[in-house]
Amino acid sequence: MARRGRKVTRRRKKAMPSILGFAEAYAQGNLITSNLFNSNPISFLVGDIRGTGFSTSGGTSLIELIRDPQKLDSIAQSRFNVENIATLAVQSAILNFGFKTAKRALRRPINMVNRTVFAPLALGVKL
Fold first, then answer.
1. What is the pTM of this model?
2. pLDDT by residue (tens digit) across 54-63?
3. At what angle do helices 19-37 and 70-79 cross, to 10 degrees?
């Protein structure tokens, strides 16, 4: 009886982080934090740190919410209404659709930039 052949192990490239994926995540985060907390994602996470250039400028930060959980109740009562959430959902869907459409329309140039710029430089990211 003939020996069975070994199963060939398939090698895959490691998944690289995508610059467009980061941009989409930041845009979605900006949409949510600006509508709910009057802040941008960086100042929401970092808070009001003097001397570094980041300021909440009147918005709420995560550090403030951790220090005073009652503040979340007042934010929820004022901003978590049906109209605001519906508007946020529509804006998020439009943003998601826009990114998908742009990626699909620009697939060939994106692949060319990945192949000719990012791959030879071995940066570990893709567009």
1. 0.74
2. 544 567 777 7
3. 90
